[in-house]
Amino acid sequence: MSDTPKSFRVGLVQMCAGRMVDRNIAAATELIRAAARGGAQYVQTPEMTNILELDRERLLAAIKPEVDDPGVTQFRFLARELGIWLHVGSLALVGERGRPVNRSLLISPEGRIDARYDKIHMFDVDLPGGESYRESASYEPGHEAVVAALPWGQLGMTICYDLRFPHLHRALAKAGARFLAVPAAFTKPTGLAHWHTLLRARAIENQCYVFAAGQGGCHENGRETFGHSLVISPWGEVLAEADVQPAVTFADVELQRLEDVRRQVPSLRHDRPFDVVYAADTPPNEVAS
Ligand SMILES: O=C(O)CNC(=O)[C@H](CS)NC(=O)CCC(=O)C(=O)O
Description:
Nitrilase/N-carbamoyl-D-aminoacid amidohydrolase; 6-stranded mixed sheet
């Protein structure tokens, strides 16, 4: 008999981060406390919890290496004080190679940093409405997918635009993840078009719970983000959803549900190898005359 607890409560912190790091940390702290008061044992904050700033010069002036970062210090204290698993969806930090990284941290209830994940896929896009992003101009991408242990099972760590790369989520699920984390700062137009659909697809195809805390609303730097933080079941059901403004969204995660779904439709175990061929290169069928 395993002594893994049968359920736990998730709290997603939705924020509207600005350019001032100390204000963002204070706003996040208040919502994380509210999440813990509401009984959340795993609390996730969105991408760019400490600063939403795409201007490279301003960003460089505002951020610090992980060891000196005031947010890291604060969130470690907070996790320990509240006795929660605190997943800081991401912080802009100066990486070990001197360039900014978009980094997610999983902090244990003892205040230990148990996992770090640097966003792999850079949001370099030109949207139909005229919005343009060049994340790779400011940030250095990561190269490692990360699975981290929670008391209830493994957590696969991703960030925002990573959501569009299904093989990353597949790899995490194959490596044992039962929960996929997608902290985000989705744009409003792409959120409207794709957010629910992609998150539900990642949950259904990988038979995982999906936890996605978002940024939402109009930010100091002129951006507007989509909000709608979501908790999704392995069957694709929306268990809880935020609106656009800052708030905490709660859901109870039932591990038996995940086991049931995986037993009933074992698609996660039905992957098979195959080749891709060009039809023109295959021999024509015999046509009966
Ligand atoms: O750097 C910051 O200030 C905050 N970071 C972000 O907003 C990131 C990179 S620009 N946003 C996304 O990845 C949005 C993805 C998205 O919206 C989609 O895939 O449709």
